[in-house]
Amino acid sequence: MTVTMTDPWADLVEDMAPVAREALNSLTETLAEAERRGYFGFARSGMGVVDKVVTSFSEEDVKALGDNIVLILETIKQMTQPQVMAMLQRTVDVVGEKEPAEPPSLFALLKELREPQVRRGLARAISMLRSVGTDTPIAER
Questions:
Q1: In a 3-state reduction of DSSP, which class is residue 59?
Q2: What's 112-136 look like in SS3?
Q3: What is residue 3's predicted lDDT score, i.e. its pLDDT?
Q4: From CA 21, how far away is CA 13, in angstroms rounded?
Q5: pLDDT band at 15, cuts 50/70/90?
Q6: Is the distance from CB of 105 to CB of 112 less than 8 angstroms?
Q7: In this structure, are residues 40 and 34 in contact, taking their beta carbons and an 8 Å threshold?
């Protein structure tokens, strides 16, 4: 009776080969799907954006951003409210409209003041101008 000793590493490789092949096939399929969906193109473009940010801002700029990031994010959060987004969309629509050949007369402008929407808009614009003109920091208001 002859007992043959097999190399334990060879046995391990033989046992693991199907598992490794299946894992490699799964990884290849996942990467191919990611390529089809555009993940790699997005990442390449994103690296271009990151490069522009890195080369455009100094370390001091990034520190100042860090000091104000909460205020920036709160502002963005408020800007994304539906009523603000609707107002911005209406503003973009108006800016995109063709301008009249002649500027309106003073009488035509005064006539517009009879419209409630115009008065509300004017009141908001005046309130905004007042806010822009104030020196009081936001935290103190």
A1: helix
A2: HCCCHHHHHHHHHHHHHHHHHHCCC
A3: 46
A4: 11
A5: confident
A6: no
A7: yes
Q: Tell me the C-alpha distance between 11 and 8, whole Å.
A: 5
Three-state SS for 58?
A: coil
Q: What is the pLDDT of residues 86-113, one digit of tens each?
A: 999 998 998 888 888 889 999 999 999 9
| Cα(8)–Cα(99) distance, integer angstroms | 84
For the stretch 29-80, pLDDT in tens is: 999 999 999 999 999 999 999 999 889 999 999 999 999 999 999 999 999 9
CA atoms of 85 and 69, how far apart (whole Å): 21
| Residue 26 to residue 30: CA distance in whole angstroms | 6
Kindly state the tokens that stand for 77: 């959060």
71 Cβ neighbours under 8 A, 6+ residues apart: 138
Q: How far apart are alpha carbons 123 and 115 in whole angstroms?
A: 12
